[in-house]
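for the writeup, i need someone to sanity check this before i put it in the appendix. the sequnce is what the collaborator sent (i think, or maybe the updated version? ugh). structure was predicted straight from it, no edits. if anything looks off just tell me and ill rerun, i have time this weekend
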Amino acid sequence: MRTCFPLVQPSVPTELDAAAAAESRGQFHTAFRHLERAHVLAQPSTREHVRVHWRMLHFALRGRRSGDAFGQAWRLVAALCLTWLGLVPPGNTGGSRVNGFRPMPVPPELQTALDCTSGAERNPLRVQAFRRRVAMVAIGVLAATGMLVLGGCGSPPRDLDMSLEKPSAAGRYRIALVPPVPAVAVNRMHSWQVRLASTDGQLVSGARFAVDGGMPQHGHGLPTQPRVTRESVPGTYSLDGMKFSMPGWWQLRFAIDGATGGDTVSFNILIGDPGARP
């Protein structure tokens, strides 16, 4: 696939530099948006495509998001194997929470930079056939690798902390996560409750929460974007928009902004197989 990537390439480090600057200011959402833009621009080049996924991997590791890091690890391998064959979904933003093979709309300003590839000449049929064969081999290798990885991490660690009430990471709060009744069902929307107290047991009102999570062994995030929407009673908050798309080990992470400062907490949740016999 012939491209005019040299015309696009200068925009990639510009977006990467903007991502680093935003992250240094604590603007993590903005930083990742720049990484996504860099990914869209980098797709015509194997080197740059791999480079962006490498940066996304380190971004996830610095944020201690093991599921996102796992997702970036296999995407990095896929970028190395498939980019030169032209087997990349245009517009895909490259994050671990989107399907790695799904085409996505390209922002107009990025499309302008990428339009130079639209006039690429056709490859000879022999080259096309060769690339198809290599592509099938590469996809087979990736699929086999994925099966081995998933097979090796099918069971959660035995020493998982399954407590739904615990102190926050820096010890500023004590948090209880209250599941719904009846029990959580796979692929059903549901709401939880979050109870927040100080270390001496006093309920904490007026706190704000950011919610994140996913499946550490599968490398993907939550299928929805749950939010703490309201404080139903003092110190008790409603967590709406929760959904688990499959059985297994999930993590639910909270960033808390309360009266005594910011803190974080993480909960492990095991969702049972609805088809399993008791």
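The chain has two domains: 5-152, 165-271. The mean pLDDT is 81.
thx in advance!!
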